[in-house]
Amino acid sequence: MNQSAQVELIHVSKQFLRQTGEQVAGLNNLTLSIHPGEVIGIIGTNGAGKSTLFNCLTGQIPIDSGDILIDGQSIYSMSAQSLARQIGRVFQDPRMGSAPRMSVFENLMLANKRGEKRGLGRSLTTNNRKYLIEKLKPFRLDLEHRLDVPIENLSGGQRQAVSLVMATLLQPKLLLLDEHTASLDPRTAKEVMKMTQHLIQENNLTTIMITHHLQDAIEFCDRIVVMHQGRIVNIYTSEQIETLSTTDLYQYLVDLVEREVLENYTV
Ligand SMILES: Nc1ncnc2c1ncn2[C@@H]1O[C@H](COP(=O)(O)OP(=O)(O)OP(=O)(O)O)[C@@H](O)[C@H]1O
C-alpha cells in the first residue's frame, strides 16, 4: 500500500435530525487539505463534530454534500474493502477494534489480512511470529512474550499498543487516532504516545489525532485544528505551535464555550 496520502475535505457538510425534530450540524462546510505525512491534531468543544469527522472519513456515515478525497480519489468511488485497507483507526476504548477471545497473535494476523478473502490458518507462520515480535518489542509492554494470550486478558495500555500495531500493520494511507490514550493512566499514555510517534515516523503516515491532551497536540502535531459547532474555527500552524502553551489552547476553548453561552443572551 502506498503510504502518506494527501487528504482533502471539500465543503463537507453533515446534518443530523434530533428526535425533537431539530436539525443539528455534525459538520458544517468543512474544508481542509492535509499533506502527505502530516500529523494533524483535532481539538474542540463538546459536540464539535470530531467523531462525526472520523465517521465520515471512514465512510461509516454518509455526508450530505461536499467530497472527501484520498490521493485525489473520492472515497465514495472506492469499494468498502479498498477504503478499509487505506485507513487505520484506533479508538478511545481499548476493547474496540479487536476480538477479545482471540490471542494477540491471531488478532494481529487478522489485521494483516484486512480486505483479503483467504482464511487465517495459512498466515499463522513462524516467520510472521518473528516479524510481530520485532514490531511489539519497542513498546516495552512485554507484549512480545504474550502473543498467545487472549486480548481480553491484557491491560488497557497493552491493548492500545496491539490496536496501534494492528492499525498500522498494512501501512495505511491514513491513520485516525480517536482519543486513543484518553482511558490510560498518565505513564502508560505517555508510553503509548511515544510509540505512536515512532510508528507514524517509521511509516511516514498521514495522521489525524483527536485529543483532549493539549500537551500531546502541541508536542506531536504539525498543525492543530480547532473545531466548534461543526466548523473549523482555527488552525494553528507549526510556526504558531512553537510558541503555543497548553494554557493558550485551553483559554481559546474556554472563550469559545463562553461566547456560545453568551450568544443566547441579548441586552
Ligand atoms: N447519530 C446522531 N444523531 C443525532 N445527532 C448526532 C448524531 N451524531 C452526532 N450528533 C450530533 O452532532 C454533533 C457533533 O457530534 P460529535 O459526536 O461528532 O461531536 P464530538 O466533537 O465528537 O463531541 P465529544 O467530544 O463531546 O465526543 C453534536 O451536536 C451531536 O449531538
TrEMBL record:
InterPro entries hit by this protein: AAA+_ATPase, ABC_transporter-like_ATP-bd, ABC_transporter-like_CS, ABC_transpr_LolD-like, P-loop_NTPase
Annotated Pfam families: ABC_tran
Transmembrane segments: none
GO function terms (MF aspect): ATP binding
Keyword DNA repair assigned: no
Keyword DNA damage among record annotations: no
Annotated keywords: ATP-binding, Nucleotide-binding
Location of the ABC transporter domain: 7-254
Stated name of the protein: ATP-binding cassette domain-containing protein
Record organism: Fundicoccus culcitae
